[in-house]
Amino acid sequence: MTHILVTAKLVPDLVEELEIAESGTALDMTWLRLIINEFDDHAIEQAIILKERSGCEVTVIAPDQEGMDDVLFTAAAKGADRIIKLVGDFEEGVNNHALARTLAASTKEIGPDLILTGVQGNDDFDGSVGPYLAEYLGMTYVGYVAGVTLEGDKAIVHKEYPGGLIAELEVTLPAVLGIQAAEQPPRYVAVSKVRQMMKEASIDEVDVLDLDPSGGLEISSMYLPEAAERAEMLDGDEEEIAARLVEIFKEIGVV
Amino acid sequence: MNNDIYVVIEHLRGQVADISYIMLAAARDLAQVTGGEVVGVLLGQDVKALADNLAADKVLYGEDAALAEFTSDAYQLALAGLISENEPRAVFFGSTTIGTDVAGVLSARLDLPLVSSCLKIADGVIVSQICGGKIMAESGLADTTTFITVIPGGYKPEEGQGGPPEVTPVSVTVADLKVALKKYIEPEVADVDITKEDVLIAIGRGIQTEDNIELAEELGELLGGAVCASRPIVDQGWLPTARMVGKSGQIVKPKLYLALGISGAPEHAEGMVEAENIIAINIDPGAPIFDVAKYGAEVDLFDLIDPLIEALEEAR
Ligand SMILES: Cc1cc2nc3c(=O)[nH]c(=O)nc-3n(C[C@H](O)[C@H](O)[C@H](O)COP(=O)(O)OP(=O)(O)OC[C@H]3O[C@@H](n4cnc5c(N)ncnc54)[C@H](O)[C@@H]3O)c2cc1C
Ligand SMILES: Nc1ncnc2c1ncn2[C@@H]1O[C@H](COP(=O)(O)O)[C@@H](O)[C@H]1O
Questions:
Q1: Which terminal residue of chain A has fewer beta carbons within 10 Å of its beta carbon, N or C?
Q2: In A, which residues are within 8 Å of B181 by CB distance?
Q3: Structural domain includes residue B188
Q4: Domains in chain B: how many in total?
Q5: What is the CATH number of the domain that holds B229?
Q6: pLDDT tens for residues B267-300?
C-alpha cells in the first residue's frame, strides 16, 4: 500500500494586522495569529482523496506550534491514519532549511513513497520546504501541482505552467510534490468530529533537539510597504461612498 | 567565486517569458555593485535565437534534447554543473512555477542560500516582498553564490530588452531523469473573455459564499461588465478557471477594475496592475490592494453593495 506523508506548518493570518518586532528584522509574534498554511490544507485534502481512491496510508507530520494540535486532529477527522508532532523550539519560528532538515530526519524512519507538502508558505523568505525536503532525502521534487493520480511506482501529476497551461508529468516515486491545489476544495469537518478525534486519536510526539538553520539568509531589515502611493480613500457612510463611486464611474466613462 | 550575475532565462513554447527581461534588469542593478557581467543562461533545444533580445553582456547557451521542454529535474542537472563550475556571485530565477522548483532544489543540492520573492535591488540590497505583499524584507548577498527568485513589479520588461548579446555554447549533462512530460493540457475555452471586457467586477475571498456571487453579477450587469475573481474563488469551484486574474490566470487591463474583498497579493496584482482605474473595497485598511488602487474604501462590501446598486439604478 502506498504510504503518503503530508507536512504542515502554521503561517501568519494575513487578514490580521502584522507588526514588526523591536529587532526590526522579524515579525512581532506577540499578537500574531497563526493559521494552517492554506496550501498544506490542500496537500492534506489531496492525500485523503488519494486514500479514498486507491487505499493509501496517510500520515501527517508538523512542527509543534500553538494551535497545531487542532490542525492535526482535524486531519485525523478527515481520514489521516497517523498524526505526528515534532516537539522542539518552534515557537519563535524557524526557517525552512531547518524545518526541512528535521522533517527529513523523521521521514527516514517513516519511509513514505510519496510526500505532499504545500507548495509554499506566505512567510517563506528562504524558499519553500518541499524542494529542500526532497533534496535532503534524495527524492525528486515537482511543485505547483494541482491533481495527482497514482499508477504503480509512478505518480501522474498536473503541474501548473504560466498562462493557465497544465503539464501532465510522469514522476517516478519516491517523490515530493508541492501541492498548489487539491482536486477539490479542502473538505469541512464538523467541530464535533474533531472533538471526538481528540478523545480517540493520539498525536505521536518526536523530539527534535537541534534545529539547523544553515543555508537560510538572515533578514537585515523588515518593514511595512511605504504608504506613498496609496489609493485615494473615500470617506463617509455607505450611501456617500456609493454616490461618490457612481460619480467616479461617470468620470471614467463607464456609466 | 567571480562577480558575474547569472540569469536563468525562462521560456515556454518558443517565447521568452517577461520575467526573464525583468530579471535581466534586476541583475544589471546588482552587477553594477558587484562589478561583474550580466550573463544570461539559456537552456533548451533549437532556441538560440531567443537570446537575440536579451539585455545581457553575454549568454551561455546549453542545448540538449532533454531540455526541449521544461522539466525541473533536467534543468536542475544542467544548471548544477554550470553553477558549481563557474561560481557566479548570484543566480536569478523567476519566482514562477518553473523557476521556484529549480532554485529550491539547487539551493539544497549545492548548499547555497536562496532569497525568495525579490522585488528589486536597491544599492546592492535584495528587497523582497513577503506575507502576501504586506511585509518587505531586506537582505544582502551571502559570502557564497546566492540564489534569488524574482517577482514582477519592480522593473518593466522593456528595461531588460536589448542585444543581441554574444552567445557562447556550453556543454550540459542531463541524464537519468525522473520526470517525463507526457503532454500539455491547454487552458479551457472561456465562456466570457475577461481580457476583452471594459469593466470587471472582481471578487475575492471576502465574498464569503458562492450564493453571494449573484451580488457581483448584478453590479456587472448594471455596469455592462463581467465578473472575474481571485484564485481562492476558482479553487472553490465557484467560477471557472478562465475567470481567474493573476499569475496563474489572465492578465487584464480594463477601464474599470472594481475589486471586492480581494487582499491584493502579489500573485493577484500581477494580473491587474495595468488596469486603467482600480477601485478597491476592503475592510482591512492594511490590505495591499490599496497600494495599487486609484480609489479605495474601507467598508464592508455587503454594506456597500445595496446602496451602490440603488445609486447605479438611479443614475441610469
Ligand atoms: C504560484 C501561485 C500562483 C497564484 N496565482 C494566483 C492568481 O493567478 N490569482 C490570484 O488571485 N491568486 C493567485 N495566487 C494566490 C494568492 O497568493 C492569494 O492567496 C490570493 O490572491 C488571495 O485571494 P483573495 O484576495 O481573494 O483572498 P484573501 O487574501 O483571503 O483576501 C480576502 C480579502 O477580503 C477582505 N474582506 C473580507 N471580508 C470582507 C467584507 N465583508 N468586505 C470587504 N472586504 C472583505 C479581507 O480584508 C481580505 O483583504 C497564487 C498563489 C501561488 C502560490
Ligand atoms: N492524470 C491525472 N493526473 C492528475 N490529475 C488528474 C488526472 N486526471 C484527472 N486529474 C484531476 O482530477 C480531477 C478530476 O478529473 P477527471 O478525472 O477529469 O474527472 C481534475 O481536477 C483533474 O485535474
A1: N
A2: 167-169
A3: no
A4: 2
A5: 3.40.50.1220
A6: 999 999 999 999 999 999 989 999 899 999 999 9
Over the Cα atoms of chain A, what is R_g?
21
Q: Which residues of A66-105 are buried (b: 16+ CB within 10 A; e: fewer)?
A: eebeebbbbbbbbbbebbbbbebebeebbbbbbbbbbbbe
Identify which of B111, B130, B146 has the shortest CB distance to residue A123: B130
Taking the C-alpha atoms of residue B297 and residue B302, their distance in angstroms, rounded to an integer, is: 13
Axis crossing angle, helix B99-109 with helix B72-86, rounded to the nearest 10: 50
- Same structural domain for residues B93 and B206? no
CA-wise closest residue to B252 among B264, B243, B263: B243
Distance of CA B256 to the CA centre of its chain: 22
Q: A217-226, B193-202, B255-264: which range is least confident on average?
A: A217-226
- Check whether residue B51 and residue B121 sit in a common domain: yes
Ligand that comes closest to the CA of residue A171: 2
The per-residue pLDDT of chain A, averaged, comes to 94
Whether residue B52 lies inside any domain: the answer is: yes
Region of residue B281 (phi > 0: left; psi between -120 and 50: alpha; otherwise: beta)? beta
Q: Are B24 and B55 in contact (CB under 8 A)?
A: yes
Q: Which of B92, B74, B88 is CA-nearest to residue B172?
A: B74
Hey, what's the cell of A2?
502506498
Exposure of A21 by Cβ count < 10 A (0-12 exposed, 13-18 middle, 19+ buried)?
middle
Quote the DSSP letter at residue A144.
Answer: E
Co-location of B158 and B209 in the same domain? no
Are residues B77 and B31 both part of a single domain?
A: yes
Same domain as B112, residue B56: yes
Cell triple for A14: 494575513
Interface of A with B in 203-232 (CB under 8 A): 215-225, 227, 229-232
Model pLDDT for residues B70-127, shown as the tens digit of each residue = 888 899 999 999 999 999 999 999 999 999 999 999 999 999 999 999 999 999 999 9
pTM for this entry: 0.91
Note whether B231 and B155 are same-domain residues: no
Best residue among A149, A150, A159, A179 to mutate for probing ligand 2's pocket (most ligand atoms within 8 Å of CB) is A149
Complete domains list, chain A, with CATH: 3-207 (3.40.50.620)
The CATH number that applies at residue B138 is: 3.40.50.620
H or E element at residue B146: strand B146-150
pLDDT of residue A227 exceeding 80, the answer is no
Sequence-ordered list of residues with C-beta below 8 angstroms from that of B130, at least 6 positions apart, any chain: A122, A123, A124, A125, B116, B117, B136, B137
The interface pTM score, or ipTM, of the predicted complex is 0.88
**Residue B250 bridge partners (DSSP):** B245
Domain that holds residue B287: 194-315
B161 located within any domain? yes
Contact B10, B99 (CB under 8 A): yes
